[in-house]
Amino acid sequence: MRLLSTLFAFCSLMVISHNACAHSASSLPIVKPVMACSQLVDQALPGVEAKVSLTSAKVITSGNQTFCQVKAVLSPEIGVEVALPQQQWTQRILQVGCGGLCGSINLSLSNANGCVPAIRGEFVVAATNMGHAGSMMDA
Prior knowledge:
alpha+beta, five-stranded mixed beta sheet
C-alpha cells in the first residue's frame, strides 16, 4: 500500500488534479505535465507516509514517446523507478513485475509488451527491486 501511495504521489506532482471517475478507460481525458521533469527531484511527495528519497529525474524516449523517468528509494531500501508520460497520460498506472529477476529494476517499456496503451505513453509505468539489490545469480 505504501508503494501504491508513492506511485500516486509521483503522478500528482506531474498533473493538474482531474476527476475522471465517470469516464471509461478508453475515454479518459489526457492529462499534461504541469512542471518540468527536472523539477521533480526537489519536490515533496504529498500524502506519502513512508520516507521517499528522489534520486533522479530525466526525460527519456521510448519509440516516439517521451517519459520522465524518476528514480527513488522508498524507506528502508526499496528501489523504485517510474516512467511518467509527457504527452498523453490517461490517468492509468501499469506496475510491471520482476518475476525471477527481483533484486534489480527493469523499467523497460518492453516489459509492457502487448500493452499498447503503455507503449503509446498513456500509462505511467512503474517497477521496483522488491527491496533488495542483487539477483539469484549473486548467491
